[in-house]
Design a protein that fits this description.
globular, 4 helices, about 70 residues, mainly alpha, about 50% helix
Length: about 70
Amino acid sequence: MILSDIRRYLEQRGQATLADIALHFDADPSAVRGMLDVWIRKDKVYKKMATASCGGSCSQCDPAATEIY
């Protein structure tokens, strides 16, 4: 997995969660997050957080599932 692979994946999908990207590339989410940070610094990728569908704030969701790129 290299930076251009992640960029291509996001171009094809439009957006994806950190968990989806990590699963697709069979990589650790923290490693993928580091690579995504490179694209964020270059203003090629934007990070947003998913809103909780339940409206609660219990923080039980996997953080990788709530980060959307």
